[in-house]
Write a structure and sequence with these properties.
heterodimer; A: about 325 residues; alpha/beta; 8-stranded mixed sheet; 12 helices; globular; B: about 325 residues; mainly alpha; MetI-like fold; 2 domains; 13 helices; binds adenosine-5'-triphosphate; binds magnesium ion
Amino acid sequence: MENKTVIKVENLRKWFPIRRSFFATLFSKEELYVKAVDGVDFEIKEREVFCLAGESGCGKTTTARTILRLVEPTDGKIYFDGDDITHLKTKELKPYRIKMQIIFQDPYESLNPRLSVFDIVSEPLQVNKLYESQRELKEKVATALEEVELIPPERFMYRFPHELSGGQRQRVAIARAIITRPRFIAADEPVSMLDVSIRAEILELMDRFKREFNIAYLYITHDLSTARYVSDRIGIMYLGKIVETGNIDKVLDDPQHPYTQALISAIPVPDPTMKRKRVILRGEPPNPIYPPPGCRFHPRCPYAKDVCKEKEPEMVKVGEEHYAACWLLS
Amino acid sequence: MGMREYLIKRIIQGIVTIFVVISINFFLFRAMPGNPFMRFIESQPRGKVKEMVDIYIKLFGLDKPLWEQYLIYIKNLLMGKFGYSFRQVGVPVSKIIMERLPNTLILMGTATTLTIIIGIAFGVIAAGRRGELADISTVVVGLTLYSIPIFWLGLVFILVFGFWLGWFPLWGMITPGKYFSNPFEYAVDYLWHMTMPCTVLVLVSAGGWALITRNALLDVFTEDYILTAKAKGLDERTVFYKHALRNAMLPLVTMIALSFGFIASGAVLTETVFSWYGIGRLLYEGTMQHDYPVVQAAFFMIAICVIAANIIADILYAYLDPRVKY
Ligand SMILES: Nc1ncnc2c1ncn2[C@@H]1O[C@H](COP(=O)(O)OP(=O)(O)OP(=O)(O)O)[C@@H](O)[C@H]1O
Ligand SMILES: [Mg+2]
């Protein structure tokens, strides 16, 4: 049986207007934008993990927050279970909020310091009236804490975030995310702030929920080696756009876009005798206010041709379940 | 450590601080240049000036060795005796202060309460409408008010609303020579005199409060837990009040408690400009007339209030913020 598509985005854009000083607005009428996300398409099915990877500032976090409607999209479409949620108002969005959740990178910032673990985890149920009695509420919170292996739950329920370790905090954040049994979770570098020793446990936990509750994940990471361990498909993002996407093994084993090749050659290899094509990235990513014309990657690309400076390449099929946008390939 | 131990620790710290303050208070006035009695005695008929000064010095015990004076001073303070005024011979200092204190408490209490309410309200409105006209005007007006010297604004008010327009009395607290048939009439006259000094105090300080509130809120808005709250399905009002405002108010609680600690200290400049007979003006007069026992006692009282407010602020903070370790 084919799994259902949970999340689908089409040509998603998020441009942040730049606040300028009063004087600057006197001299020029031109509105400036940070083009954080600039035309992104993908879909994620039940029980599937779609990974977004790319350098810092390429728009991964903004993509996740826009899909969850935590920031307003500038353009494009967001579908949840086939429903267009792009322009729903706060009230209309409420039933969808139960079904989609987010886990942030820094568990020290994502938990309100003045609320106890019980308040934090129970709030989604309270807001959406998903319980009958106080007793049921408490039981549900206890179950959620047990599910994230904060055992015994009574020991953690009335503590405050500052009394917990980073790993425990992230578990609380996950408990909060899964308590409404969402169908979609965006996990924004959920383990990058944690000790290496507990990363695997947290990823394991997320993987278990995926299988038990058929969750669709958007998994954001810098770390391509763990990406392969948890994800099914991947999108490589550069300056607000996906430049290569497909089955994770195909993309990582046989990268087609020069940018993907560069990212992969930056991963340390366990076996030094292993030979592979090395592409060294020169310079910094350009300013997302003025993305370069043509292919956004051309100023840093070792293979750039004339056409790359003028026209933006289309996404083309380069293999089974494997697509890339580069003039070298078409 | 529990809340109880923390409380006891803070109170002991407070007592130590008070002791340090009263010691400084003692030596400060003895280190002041000039003889406080000279001016007073010069105004008397010519005669045995030297002898008179000696009599006064003996009377106030200023001929004793410094350490003995210090012990007497501490002993008297512990017994609640603040001594007698140098200027109004025979009048106890505590009586002079008690006469002035209510005026200051009424003026400063009203002004501080209004300042905080108005300042925070404007800060909340501005932060909620970031970048809109309401926000920009709050920031501009707030900054302008914040940088205006209070005595200058006081003089402008006296000139415009007192002298030119004649809406409010130029000075004082009660219309001189007026007969009041009931306490209510008296209160109305008193409040009418208080309107200008109070308005000036509120105007000059509310701007700062608005800016601080606005910044505290904007800082909190960018925290991830605000997005978390939104993701939970809370509506914007609840996110604003329950998650953002409650956290942004934390630093303000300390400031509120401290401002109330300062209400007993009066407002030296405002009270002087408007001839308001409060503690602030008393400090000014006492200093000009070398009436050291009065100034000393006023300092002591102000120090007690501020230290007490500090302790209350810390305890409130520990109670409100679970992160505070005590
Ligand atoms: N609220 C905002 N206002 C203005 N610009 C923003 C805002 N949020 C993000 N940006 C900008 O958008 C771009 C993309 O940011 P984003 O946080 O999405 O990148 P990222 O891929 O998640 O990076 P990282 O790996 O560092 O987390 C950056 O240039 C950033 O400065
Ligand atoms: Mg990010």
